[in-house]
Structures are given as structure tokens and as C-alpha cells.
């Protein structure tokens, strides 16, 4: 990611995060935090790998309450890690040699079975969690997930700037996809157009600085895409199906919008040639529900109040309740807080969310719209500013 010797602002911010995190775990009487979640490793250390536990290759960040952190990573990625991270103590392991990562982890925590450890139970691979439970069998393993999620809730100006760029990548994808939608065009061609446009937009933001050289502009992942009679199949992916006259086309760019490890939410729906009165009515209700949620967003409001605002619209129109209206976004697809019943987190400036409006009529059709926003001192700002009124192409 960033060369240590450049003394970049981003690395300075990561070091400040690390200091805050160490203070927090010390307050919890934790001696070592063992972090395995790639998003949290990036947040604190600036390193992301391209191979992980799908290939049996863990990268582990070990953070003592005092002193310098250690990054344990597969040897094949050690050179890349050294170029990306600000952390000096990088220890590499090799398959089948010298006890692998377990031996290195033993060395870092000094073989102590009396120290208190912190981990992310829901984010840690079972093999690593099993090791920790055995290693600290006589001690408590504290869940540090809440500490990290609380730290990540409010984004700094530098992070928000990157999120704005990610939003422009998402918008470029949507523009290209929309221009490709036409009668006879297969769904996968529309998705390919989004991939190409997003990659080119991401490339515009990269390359001007040496510190960006290891970021890939390539947009990837399977898009969520439904059209025609399959519109109610939520989370379906692009197929060979060709667009017909009168089709609705729904595109979710959430799995796509990944720029500099930032992940946003963004959804749009269009109609080819015509739209039925009933589908148009449902789409307008989805827009109205999202607008009600957005109008509620400002510092001091609880997360669940935003959700309740959209629920009031759905219920007034004769529909039931939905699970949530939005979710925190940033380095993960799902962050805290969430716009749902029971989440009483008070909104603060700098929090970032995906905010949705959506109705699915099972077996018939659906109407959905989604944007990412940042909470400001007096309301919110779109990170994905793009028209969303009903459009017939």
C-alpha cells in the first residue's frame, strides 16, 4: 500500500489508531490482541493479502498492550507486506517448516499461558481460535470486536475522501451499465460494461503517487443483477438472459464497489420501454421510504429512528416491516451501527451508511434503491450522487 519511508498521512493515521487501540486493550487488562480479520488488519496495519484462509494461509496481527506490533504472514507475501505496512516487525512462515505460524505466534507472545488475550471470535478462523483457546487455556480470551467496531464507526476526513472516490467508481459503473441496457442485450454484457467502467474510473484515481502502486484498479466480484420475471429473486447474479421490451432491470453494485479496501452500498433500477402502473407505484413507495430515512439522518438521532421513519412509509402503504433500512459501511460490507429496530446508537458526524428503500412482491417483481452517505454536522452528504427517479430507457 504505502511505503514507510514516505511518511504518508495514511500511515500516520494508522499509527494513531494503533496507539488508541493499545490504550483500549490495556484498559481491558488485555496483554495481547490477536487479529485475524483482513479488514481490521488493513485498518490498523495497512496490509491486505490476496490469499487467505481459503488457501490455508493465515495472516495474523499481534498487538501488545505496550510495545511494537508484529505482523505474521506467509513468506510468499512477506515482500509485499513490507512494502504496504508501516509495521517494522514482519515475521514470515512457510508451509511445513519450523512449526509454521503457530511457532511464530508462540514466540511473539513469549509462550505465556498466564497472559490475557483478546481476539475476534466471529472473525477468526476456527483453526486459529482453537490454537488460542489451547494456548490460553487457563485465562480468559476477551472479545475485542466491539473495540474495533467502535473505533471504525466514525471516519476521519482522509477516509471520507477515499469513500467519495469509491462513490465515483460506483457511479461510473452504473452509468456504463445503464447505457448498455437495451432490448436483446444479455445480462452479463451489462455487468461487463460496469466492470470495465469501474476499473477505468478507479485507475484515474491511482497511479499519481508511488504509494498507490500496489492497489489494483480491477473491479471484480459477481454483481447482484435481476431482470424481467426474475426481479423478485433477491441476490440473483447476471445470467445469459437477454433483456426484453418492458423488462425492469435491477442492479446492485455493493459487491462491486471496492476501492482502496473501501466498500460501499449502491443500487439502481430501470425500466426498458415501459413500466406497469403497479410497478411504478411500488417503485415510488421505495423511493419515498428511502427519502423518509434520509430526511431523519443527522447527529443526535438514534439509528433505529432512521429505520422507523422508513417503516412508517411501508406500513402506511399497506406493507409489512423490513429487517433494516441501512448498515454502516467502510472497510467491511457490514459495519456498526445499523438502521434497525433495537440499535440505539446515536448518530455522529463522520459515520457512513448504505441507506436502502425496497419492496419485494414475491413471485412478481421488486422495487429497490440504495445510496451510501456520510453523516454531516447538519444532515448528510451523498457518497453516491446519481439520479434515482423512475426512468424508462
Number of strands: 16
Quickly give the CATH architecture of the largest domain: Alpha-Beta Complex
> In order across it, which strands form the biggest sheet?
4-3-2-1-5-6
Write the CATH fold name of the largest domain. Creatine Amidinohydrolase
Characteristic key phrases:
393 residues; alpha+beta; Creatine Amidinohydrolase, Chain A, domain 1; 2 domains; 5-stranded antiparallel sheet; 20% strand; globular; disordered N terminus
Question: TL;DR of this structure?
Answer:
The protein has 393 residues and is α+β, with helices and mostly antiparallel strands. It contains ten helices and 16 strands. The strands form four sheets. A six-stranded mixed sheet has the order 4-3-2-1-5-6, sandwiched between helices. Strands 13-12-14-15-16 form a five-stranded antiparallel sheet.
Task: Summarize the topology.
Elements: H1 9-27, E1 32-35, H2 38-45, E2 60-64, E3 70-74, H3 78-84, E4 89-93, H4 100-108, E5 117-119, H5 126-135, E6 141-143, H6 145-153, H7 157-180, H8 187-205, E7 224-227, E8 248-252, E9 258-259, E10 262-263, E11 267-271, H9 277-296, H10 303-316, E12 324-328, E13 335-340, E14 352-361, E15 365-375, E16 380-382
Helix pairs in contact: 7-8, 9-10
